[in-house]
Amino acid sequence: MTTRAGFVALIGEPNAGKSTLLNRMVGAKVSIVTHKVQTTRARIRGIAMEGEAQIVFVDTPGLFRPRRRLDRAMVKAAWGGAADADIVVLLIEAHRGLTEGVQAIVDRVAAELPKGKPVALAINKIDRVKAEALLKLTEEMNAAYPFAKTFMISAERGHGVGDLKAWLGAELPEGTWFYPEDQIADLPLRMIAAEVTREKLTLRLHEELPYQLTVETERWEEKKDGSARIDQIVYVARAGHKGIVLGHKGETIKAVGQAARAELMEFLDRPVHLFLQVKVRENWQEERERYSEMGLEFKDGD
Ligand SMILES: Nc1nc2c(ncn2[C@@H]2O[C@H](COP(=O)(O)OP(=O)(O)OP(=O)(O)O)[C@@H](O)[C@H]2O)c(=O)[nH]1
């Protein structure tokens, strides 16, 4: 049997319904922490199986409205994420139509994405408009950009979502799955847990380091007493950064751990034992394979 696997980047204006759509396609509330838009970097938002195809959804946060230097770097990285994805889906809101924001995204898509990259259009919230308006918008959008396909959906009610998912599955390149099917179930939790810690680090360290560190959940153990033991590693790019992350007498990492643990307990609704370790991984930025796995690649100078 032919298996398929690949990355899909979901892009669109804030509020377009990306989280709602993802939750529907992935079938779990995986995007719980993602509304804190500006603290996130492109990463896996969820994984869905569609027949023999494994669809890995990547997030491209901070795609628009760069304000500070850091944000500009993030926008660049986000477009890198979209460019690396096998398929891009632009999600727009039916009742708002071709807004200035949507036009700006379309312009960027045309300018930044490699030619031939399939970009599908998903017109969301169709429950809010009449059929004629929808047809007009479809024409208008397809005049603005040669979309590979147009879908009319309601992420909230589920209309058309199955068609979109089936199309994505069929369009992905042939290849082996990135994740064993039985691991997909707890993968989002591991990623959410890592994201929570990364967010606390970002809050604590302000703009000093966040770009150069990453958090990975190494181990997740369900204890008999109903609690969860979570082991995470914070990777920093340079030996000098380790001290900053640890803080004086380990105060910084301790505060980060406490804050992350509190949020995880609330999210998981049970006791959590969180263990954080800080390690130096000098070639962190060069580990391209890792990034391409996330649908994101850092280039020199970013
Ligand atoms: N009427 C209607 N509302 C929808 C539909 N899909 C999503 N929404 C609503 O649109 C709002 C935004 O949805 P989200 O999924 O949070 O949007 P998002 O694109 O992830 O937003 P950001 O995280 O800000 O980028 C929510 O209030 C949803 O309930 C739909 O099909 N119909």
Automatic annotation (TrEMBL):
Query: Per the record, which residues fall in region G5?
Result: 153-155
Cross-referenced Gene3D superfamilies: 3.30.300.20, P-loop containing nucleotide triphosphate hydrolases
Q: Where in the cell is it found?
A: Cytoplasm; Cell membrane
List the residue ranges of the region (G4): 124-127
Q: Which CDD domains match?
A: Era, KH-II_Era
Where do the record's region annotations for G1 lie? 12-19
Q: Where is this region: G2?
A: 38-42
Q: Name one GO cellular component term.
A: cytosol
Q: Is Transmembrane helix included in the keywords of this UniProt record? A: no
Listed InterPro entries: G_ERA_dom, GTP-bd, GTPase_Era-like, KH_dom-like_a/b, KH_dom_type_2, KH_sf_prok-type, P-loop_NTPase, Small_GTP-bd
| PROSITE patterns cross-referenced by the UniProt entry | G_ERA, KH_TYPE_2
Q: How does it sit in the membrane?
A: Peripheral membrane protein
Query: Sorted alphabetically, which keywords does the UniProt record give?
Result: Cell membrane, Cytoplasm, GTP-binding, Membrane, Nucleotide-binding, Ribosome biogenesis, RNA-binding, rRNA-binding
Q: Name one GO biological process term.
A: ribosomal small subunit assembly
Function as written in the Swiss-Prot or TrEMBL entry: An essential GTPase that binds both GDP and GTP, with rapid nucleotide exchange. Plays a role in 16S rRNA processing and 30S ribosomal subunit biogenesis and possibly also in cell cycle regulation and energy metabolism.
Quaternary structure per UniProt? Monomer.
Name this polypeptide is given:
GTPase Era
